[in-house]
Each structure stands twice: as structure tokens, then as C-alpha cells.
Structure prediction request, 324 residues.
Amino acid sequence: MHPHELDEAAQPAQPGHRTPAPGFAPPPEPRSERSSWVIAIAIAATGLAVLLAVITGAVGQSSAQQQAAPTIIFAPTPVPGAPEADANLVRAARTAAIVARPTAAQQRAQGAVLTARSQAQIARTWMEGFYPIYETAQRTFGVNWLLLASIHMQETAFSTAPGTYHGLNFAGCCGGPMQFNVTNGPVSTWDLVSDSYLDARRPARYDHMTTVHPSIYDDFDAIMAAAHLLSADGAGYALGSGAWDAAYDYYGHDATGVVYADQVLARAISWSQHGFCIECAPSAPLVQAVQDAYGAPVLNALTAAESAAARAHRPAARAAGRKA
Prediction:
């Protein structure tokens, strides 16, 4: 990330509907929960320090002097007691994609729908229902709530996309606020983490509580399960390489998955710098910086593997042609 990119990243995000959530703190619990206030203060201090460091670095160096991109990371203070990821879940999570890979046309259509939804006014009261869930998931599984919220936005525009709470997606595999795959069994991705809601107390009230649990359509069940899976894939409080890898695993291992992870992480970093904003998109230089740091090496490896497979296929195809 060059200095001019840092300057742009440090500017206020585009105007939009900002929620009442604190810019750097997780959604607060009641005042009686002292630990949540300690966490909020620690996260706020860390986020401010990161932002000041970014701005200072941008002012103090020219693009010619900047040889390597700085680490783009937001690291809130860890919460003691977060459980270690189960080794079996880690292995399973790395081989089970959450979302079936759509075609390029399906991806463009889905992106257009979610972009339109994100630009529409989402009710403030609707978003407030998710904050206690994000906070509980962060505290339970040690995953930055901004990463969770960014994936929630990427998948269903904060549960406002049509069909979020019924049926399955266009690929006939996945459903609910976090788009869990329920068909890649016999042990589906959802089966792996569906009982994650048992690890913490369910909020007394929140959006779209179902009567039967676990349910991919219940916001608490789905977000807790997503946090568990992201934790198993290496995500933590830092918005860095571990978060990118977990987002990439969440979607699936292909070129579209790289773009997905770039966008998810850039949005979370932008929120950490400028405050949580429903309609504010990360700047193009920030997305590019994330891609340069994390996405490009993976994309290059995918391209090289495809090229190698194509080269290996050509002699076999020619041999088959001669025998015909």
C-alpha cells in the first residue's frame, strides 16, 4: 500500500447511514458486564493507535521511499477464555466450502442484488438486533466481530436479501443469513458447526428468532456457527492474513473466492478505521492493498495450477486424437 493509498484509506468513508455501534468497540452488553467495557476500551485504543500509525506513515514517507507495503492489520486485545478450535473441525472446514461455486453470470447477478440492497436504507432498529449476537460470537470464539459482520454483509446484505429466511439459494445448496451449505453431506458444513449456539447464552431478543434450534434461518444460530467455522480456519481478533484465509475458506477455493476474501477483509479493515457504516464501501486502493498482500499470491498459485493442468492435458488429448 503506497502513501497515496494510505491517505485515501485514512479519509472519512463515503456518506451513508451510520449505525449507533461504536467505531472500534464490539456491540456493548449491559453495564453490569464490566468485561465488555474493558474489551470495548481496549479495542478503541488499539484501533485509534493503528489509524494514527497509518496517517503518520502516509505523511512521513513518499511513494518512492516506500519499498514494501506495511502490514494492514487491526488487532483488538484478545479476550481470555476463547476456546481452541477442534482439530477435526479444522480439517473438515478446510475441505467443505460454505457456498457452492456459482458461474460467472450467477456471481454478477448475485453481486448486483446485494449491491442494490446495501445501497438501500436498512432500518437502524434492524441492525441493532445483530449487535448482541456479533458481540457474543466474538467473545465466545475469539473472532473479530467486524469480520463476521462483513461476511454477513457479503452473503445476504445483513439478512435483507430476498429468500434469506426461507428456502435455499440459486445453487440449491445453501440458506440462511450466513448461507450455510446443508447439502454437501453426508456431514454437511452446517452439520459441522450447527450446535455452536450451545457455547453461549442466547440473547433474550433479536431479529428472526426461530422456534426450533439449531436452524440455518435463526440469526443467532447461524452467526455463532459462522464464528466457530472462521475460528477453526484461523481467524482471530486481528484483521490480517488469518482473517483473509478464513474468509477464502468460507467461500471456496477458486478465483471468485479470492475476490470474495479481498472484499470481505477490506470492508472489515475500513470499518475498523472509520467506524461501522452499513452503506460505506471500502476504498478501491484499500481493496487493492488487501489483494496485493493476501489475494494475489493465492490467485497466482491458482493460475499456475490451471496452466500446469492444461499443459498436462494437451499431450493426452493429442494421443487420443491419433488413436481415433
Observations:
- The chain is about 55% helix and 0% strand.
- The radius of gyration is 20 Å.
- Residues 1-71, 113-120 have pLDDT under 50 and may be disordered.
